[in-house]
Amino acid sequence: MEAQSSSGLLLSRKRRREGSNGEAEEGERLGKKIPRCTVGLKHPAPFADELVPADNKPYVRVPMEEAKRGTPPERPVRVYADGIFDMFHSGHARALMQAKCLFPNTHLIVGICSDDLTHKYKGFTVMNEDERYDAVTHCRYVDEVVRNAPWTLTPEFLTKHRIDFVAHDDLPYSSAGSDDVYKHIKEAGMFAPTQRTEGISTSDIITRIVRDYDVYVRRNLQRGYTAKELNVGFINAKKYHLQERVDKVKRKVRDVEEKSKEFVQKVEEKSIDLIQKWEEKSREFIGNFLQMFGPEGALKHMLKEGKGRMLQAISPRQSPSSSPTREERSPSPTFRLPFFSKTSPPPSPPPHHSGARGYLISEDDDEDDDDVDDDDEN
């Protein structure tokens, strides 16, 4: 695969990164709407030692005015940004994004120092050089990565990589016995300043880890790392395990407290509801009681009505003034026992009941009996 170098040289890449400085980025800068599927990159940036130049044309640097106006597609402005890039974070990515956007047509080259130079001039790193190289190649703004970059940029290095401008924040960077390692770059008019991202840096991240050392040690011990891997002594390891147990107990107590608070809150809500319902039922009960047993309640009317009916039932009725007297009353009808009749004589009494006879109920029969008795006497 092929790509364009800063001087128009045709370079052959062993690994290709699609869309590194093509129409997608240019169209995006011009405000054109690009399909979302064309924005993503599929391959990491290649290393500089993997690019082979096709010819040996002389290197001619692009002036600042021409770079700002925009160069032809076959001649992008080659911008170089160097650093350690330990624990690659968003501050690094933002600095590279600014370097990429300095000019309309930019080819961004990133130089990364080796472990030997970094440990000598800056200090120990968390990530080794291979890890730092690989992390930067996966940044979307990077077109090319230079491994084992020099601490101070020499004219030979700038010519070798055909660098037009060097991007870095404009604060003086004192190191390697110099007040500012970019001083000669600034004097040559090749310096392009960028802005630092406040609140995020590798030193800040390391400071957080050191500050919360015990927390992270306990975290890794809990995840299965051994005390030897973490360089923790036997006594400290036991201390961390004990602290972890104490924290578990505290968490359990806290959970119980939260659950108890929730339970008490629910009980209070239920009790309030019960009290409200009880008040409603009590008012309803009192109203029904007064309606039944009150001064003008239904019970009083029922009692009055029952008393009137009882008095009416036990009091005698008054006879009408036109009713006949006893003498004027018609004789009462005669009633006979069902086995006696006036036409048939009573049966003869049995021998042992000679005096027994039938009894008539009517008054006429009594008179007849009296006549019979008189005849017997005569």
Automatic annotation (TrEMBL):
Ranges in a coiled coil: 239-266
GO CC term (a single one): endoplasmic reticulum
Sequence segments annotated as region (Disordered): 1-32, 313-378
Database matches in InterPro entries: CCT, Cyt_trans-like, Pcy1-like, Rossmann-like_a/b/a_fold
Acidic residues biased stretches: 362-378
GO function term, MF aspect, one: phosphatidylcholine binding
Pfam families in UniProt: CTP_transf_like
Pathway, per record: Lipid metabolism; Phospholipid metabolism; phosphatidylcholine biosynthesis; phosphatidylcholine from phosphocholine: step 1/2
Cytidyltransferase-like domain: residues covered: 80-208
Reactions that this protein is recorded to catalyse: phosphocholine + CTP + H(+) = CDP-choline + diphosphate
E.C. numbers: 2.7.7.15
UniProt biased composition (Low complexity): 1-11, 315-324
Family annotation (Gene3D superfamilies): HUPs
Keywords of the record: Coiled coil, Lipid biosynthesis, Lipid metabolism, Nucleotidyltransferase, Phospholipid biosynthesis, Phospholipid metabolism, Transferase
Family membership: Belongs to the cytidylyltransferase family.
NCBIfam families: cyt_tran_rel (TIGR00125)
Main function: Catalyzes the key rate-limiting step in the CDP-choline pathway for phosphatidylcholine biosynthesis.
Protein name per its UniProtKB record: choline-phosphate cytidylyltransferase
UniProt source species: Neogobius melanostomus
